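Standup notes
- HV: blocked on the assembly model, inputs below
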Amino acid sequence: MNEKKPLLQVEGLKMYFPLKKGLLSRTYCHVKAVDDVSFEVREGETFGIVGESGCGKTTTGKCILRIHDPTDGKIIYNGRDISKLPKSKFKENRRELQLIFQDPYESLDPRQSVCSILEEAIVCDRKFHTKEEIKKRMRELLSLVELHQDIALRYPHELSGGQRQRLGVARALACNPKLIVCDEPVSALDVSIQAQIINLFRRLQEELGLTYIFVAHDLAVVRHIAGRIGVMYLGRMVEILDSDDLFENSRHPYTKALLSAVPTTDYYREKRRERIVLEGEVPSPINAPPGCPFHPRCRYATDICRTTMPELLDRGRNHLVACYHDGPCES
Amino acid sequence: MDNEIREISCITDEETRLKAKKRRKQNIRYFFTVLFGRGILAKISFVLVCIFILVAVFCPLLTSYTPFQQELSNALKGASPQHLLGTDNLGRDLFTRIVYGARFSLSIGLLSSVWALVIGVALGLAAGYFGGIFGGLVMRLMDAQLSIPPLILALCLAAVFGGAVFSISLIIGISAVPGYVRVIYGQVLSLREYDYVEAARLIGQGNFKILFKHLLPNCFPTIIVMFTMGVGTAIMIESGLAYLGIGIKAPTPSWGVMIFEGYKYIFSSPHLALWPGIMLMLLIISLSVVGDGLRDALDPKLRGKL
Amino acid sequence: MGNKLLEVKNLKTTFFTVNGEIKAVDGISYYVDEGEVVALVGESGCGKSVSQLSVMQLVQSPPGKIVGGEIVFQGQDLLQCGAQSKEMREIRGARIGMIFQEPMTSLDPVQTVGSQLAEVIRRHKKVSKKQAWEIGVKTLEAVSIPDARVRMKNYPFELSGGMRQRIMIAITLACQSQLIITDEPTTALDVTIQAQIMELLMRLVRENKTSLVVVTHNLGLVTRHADRIYVMYAGKIVESGVTEDIITKPRHPYTIGLLNSVPKLRRDCSEDLNPIEGAPPDLANLPNECYFLPRCPYGKQACKGKKYPDLRQVDGQEHFIACFMDIGNDEGCTI
């Protein structure tokens, strides 16, 4: 494995959203969107987070960027805990952490031209002053994301979905980020465009040495781009493993079920494959079941699963699993 | 593919500049096509608004009388070559008074709308964006003001500020503020949840820049419509104030004052109230049509579509 | 070979807009046999959804209009009936069911699930309200909804996306539709729920001999479930055939490109994906040649200037492509 130091360490991250009611807005319970999540991301690596909607993957990303202030836990970026820094002290790191949004239609101001979107991001840096410098930087950014200069004067609604997403990437890059959280960046795009954007992400990582946290629900996409993958279920991390191990060596029953649910284009294998169709739906994070969150849908669940949450333990080869019944055999 | 694009983006500055110039020209053309694109009504309205403004500016040049010149022997006459629209109960030339009235009514209408707009939009933006105790306080204050009838409020304010054009417009403006605040507040609440506001925050943009660069421009459509409608309302409120004896004092020709004075003679000499009324109606309608056109012309989304 | 339940011949749907005529569906022909699962695959804007709305005659008019073709359903040309006719309404409700991507918009938000379901049942069967309710409970059980009796009294917003999609399926089931058209039925759902819904649909197809048309962009889903596939691009069918042929031996450059664009779960992921370069053409002004030519990696000088290629048969008995070239003859989709 590479011996690079971790750029980001998340330790015991918790994000509870209070639910309020009544005249005095009394808090009567919490939505445990993220519950005790820990992982680390090394420099230049891509860490993928997969899970179904409501599993807390997006919230985790937003906590790292300090869009939400986490309820508890540490977010150590470059050796410094940024989770409790006051906003004024966080400023110096602000621009090093960027986000790429899921919806390329909502993430661009409809009343700004491409040119002024980029200019805004560049000028904020206060490194570029003269018009010439800004223009040069703008050209640089556009060519980085393979956009034609001609579009600089257009407005977002005149661009295609792929072009918009490229522009979103260019805006993030304008800040010279070290870590980019990509929140479902390709799920709103067509298949052929999706592949173009994924390739772009990979190329930028090579050229600029970026670190990604890639949040998505599509296992195949995440496997393709990420080096390590964390699988989340109901606010908890249930398995963390190298992406090469995902298909052959995943051990958590939920990961296996997810894998089997994803239809692939491998015709002959698809016909032979045994499918695990999970019963029921994801419980609401307002009253998550006690013990392992997955036990109501798990076919291996025993008594201990219903009472105690299994810990996320290292099973060797950088493979962490939170399950009592994770024999690598049954598959 | 990669190389190709990189080559393209090394286009000389000269070429880009030319393209930018062309594009800007196109945008200006689109602006006017959309502004007038709504058929004959939009064109007429635009011309009318222009005429009203020109009349208000150049009124002394248009008539040989002054609005105060009385000729009691000639009172309450119909239209004649000397008096194009006839005379009023004191024998003053009606046409002259309407022309001068345009000056007062327009300036009060516009000025008070500007007051309302500036105060209302600023409060609405701030309350919506910062929220919390400040936002709650502003909104409750506005609710309190809404519960007082606008005319009563204006009466109280007039007693404090007096009755010059400037203070009257301020009074009318203040009474229109809550409307702006409520609408802008609601709009900002929904706009600030958009991803692009989040993105601006992530690139390190300050709160005020976000307010003025992203939230304000996206409120434009509402603001324009509210503004043009506000001008009409303001003129009406002004005439109401005049009728109650505050605001512009009687000899000063404002359309509102004229309508209420002419009202007394509505059966004998209907033209006294009719002509200023028609002018007021034309102004309000044409302003709101121009406002709609302006809203669409400023919307970049509609630009490409024509 | 079964009987043809639905046969669409040379269907053309055009939208008349300020920007000119947009040929959203430009002369497509396809058929669906009884008990068969047919997939229409393509990217957004390729006309796959419009083609299905045309079959139901639900295209918004104006600006949309079906300008030509035949839609033969059980021997009857639907286009002759007229969109608002009583017959068409009866067919839409009962004999052809339609399931959309977002079920929330297809359900009435202010009525309980039960009353909507019972209403549909009573429209098609002469039963009392009470009986209709009982049949409703049974159909909900048939689509594996737990606590069906409780669910009947729920409003649509109280249910999850997967549940709502099940309700939509229950409605088509209650009507005993012979054909179910699904437009991106699982795109809005989570992967595990997606699998549940597809299993359910496939079970209905097997048990009731229903035919299913799946409109989707998800190639994996199609590989897993469809019997035959039609691939669409810019309002035209570019390739059609049995699933096995299309997925393992694609012959049209667009299909090949699409299949290569999908990230594979197993393949070595150190290499880049092979996307199709460029973007789909502007439907308002299409070139007078092959629409895919600008993006085609094989596009030859020979293709230039020629009119749009007709569908022609290649190797398999039912394998058609609209391409001048002979690509992927033996080596499959390797480039």
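- HV (later): unblocked. The domain at 37-302 of chain B is CATH 1.10.3720.10 (MetI-like fold). The radius of gyration of chain B is 25 Å.
- Next: hand off to the docking folks.
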